[in-house]
Design brief:
The chain is of the alpha/beta class. It has helices at about 45-50, 80-90, 105-115, 125-135, 150-165, 180-195, 210-215, 235-240, 245-250; strands spanning about 5-15, 15-25, 30-35, 60-65, 65, 70-75, 75-80, 90-95, 170-175, 200-205, 220-225, 225-230. The strands form 3 sheets. Strands 8-9-10-3-11-12 form a 6-stranded mixed beta sheet, with helices on both faces. A 4-stranded antiparallel beta sheet has the order 2-1-4-5, with helices on one face. It starts with a strand and ends with a helix. The model has no long low-confidence stretch (mean pLDDT about 95).
């Protein structure tokens, strides 16, 4: 089987600032890849490019063997139309630092919204799916609660359920615990561990070292827009090869 996700020499700049400098790696089906690194190393931009929320400047990103955001024509890459990009995004779920829930909709309504309007599911089908996904993240008793009635951790779990309701093959997580109070972090990480155990393919930008050590298949360490290390968690945490990774771990703990 080909990799589910493959990045080949990916570059991205904002003005004169080069944020991604030749990123190359692949993610196999069922892998959980934790992306670590200091702030400003390009981790969040990487995820945005994978989901084509930011266009790359050079290189290629392939999802299940298909170019993300582009098609090849006459040996050149041509930008895909919005409809083609939207179809691919249906297979790639993304959860952000902020929950971005609709405040006027209940938890159930938030999770039903995309399946009804994007996947064109019937309301009955979407309701059943949304109920199942909210139960999966431990919120089966909060279907009728509005975001203002939920804790930050509960809101983030609704956001995860919202992505899962679309039936993604790949999940992207961008520092999903960074906006939470410390006592709420564990409940979100527990949901993510459960997804990992179920075989969900995940690319996770995080500063949660315990999650990376225990739940990830691999650790990718980035610095200044480049992949510095790509190793199994045990090897990375026990004996990082680069000085930059050693400095990072000495600060954030092993």
């Amino acid at each position: 089987m080909p990799p589910l996700l493959e990045l080949v020499d990916v570059h991205k700049a904002f003005g004169r600032t080069e944020v991604l400098r030749g990123i190359s790696f692949s993610v196999e089906p069922g892998e959980v890849v934790a992306v670590l690194g200091p702030s400003g190393s390009g981790k969040s931009t990487l995820l945005l490019c994978v989901n084509h929320l930011e266009r790359i400047d050079r290189g290629r990103i392939l999802f299940d063997g298909r170019l993300v955001g582009y098609r090849e024509q006459g040996g050149r890459l041509k930008a895909e139309g919005d409809a083609a990009v939207a179809r691919m995004r249906r297979e790639i779920g993304m959860v952000f630092q902020r929950f971005n829930l609709f405040p006027h909709l209940t938890a159930l309504g938030n999770v039903m919204e995309a399946p009804v309007h994007v996947l064109k599911q019937s309301k009955a089908e979407a309701r059943a799916r949304a109920t199942a996904m909210l139960s999966r993240v431990g919120l089966g008793d909060k279907l009728d609660a509005y975001p203002s009635q939920l804790s930050g951790g509960q809101q983030q779990r609704v956001a995860i359920a919202r992505s899962l309701a679309m039936g993604p093959r790949l999940m992207l997580f961008d520092e999903v615990t960074s906006a939470l109070d410390p006592e709420l972090v564990g409940e979100v990480l527990e949901v993510m561990r459960g997804l990992a155990e179920m075989g969900m393919t995940m690319l996770v930008v995080t500063h949660e070292m315990a999650f990376a050590r225990e739940a990830a298949s691999r650790v990718i360490f980035m610095d200044e827009g480049a992949v510095v290390e790509d190793a199994p968690p045990a090897a990375f945490f026990a004996s990082p090869r680069s000085d930059r990774a050693r400095q990072f771990l000495s600060r954030y703990g092993r």
